[in-house]
Amino acid sequence: MTAPRERDRMITLSHVPADRLHELTHLQQHPGQYANNGAQMILDDTPDLSFHAIHADGELVGMFKLDPLYAQRHDFAKETDLGMRGVLIDMAHQGKGFGTAAMAALPAYAARQYPDKGRLVLTVNLLNPAAYAAYRGAGFRDEGGIYAGGSRGPQHILWADLPLTGTAPCSARSSTS
């Protein structure tokens, strides 16, 4: 039996409760990338922040954080917006389409987690074209807004609508195209 091609692997998203955050600590970025490593990311004690895992066929490949109080921290967001922060795809799994597939699955997943929210909002550094391309490839819109308050420089502001029902599947196939 042959191993599945990377693009055929199923991506799933799941909430990680506080007592299991240690499972994310081994996730690493390449030096110089924009997100912190997993061990640093789980130390974020921002009120109401939630942590989520990205799996490919059951294997942990990444993580992200959702922030329901994003509008209180960023004046460009509305109260009905859900913020996404700190996306990390482990360096061993980058370039395989997992990030784009996870971001494509994210709106349906986020709608189920936060049914009172209408849009997903995130910022991505202007000097991070790979992440920008992944978000845009996953359906996030760039309406031209720039957030100048990023800790590592100016950032694009990207948006994705959340489904009204929140009943769409929260998994996707990765794609290397």
UniProtKB/TrEMBL annotation:
Q: Which GO terms describe its molecular function?
A: acyltransferase activity, transferring groups other than amino-acyl groups
The protein's matches in InterPro entries, at most eight in alphabetical order, are given as: Acyl_CoA_acyltransferase, GNAT_dom
Q: Name one Pfam family in it.
A: Acetyltransf_1
Q: What Gene3D superfamilies does this protein map onto? A: 3.40.630.30
Q: Does the keyword Transferase apply?
A: yes
Ranges for domain N-acetyltransferase come to: 11-169
Domain of life per record: Bacteria
Q: Which UniProt keywords apply?
A: Transferase
Kindly provide the name given to this protein in its UniProt entry.
GNAT family N-acetyltransferase
- Species name: Paracoccus aurantiacus
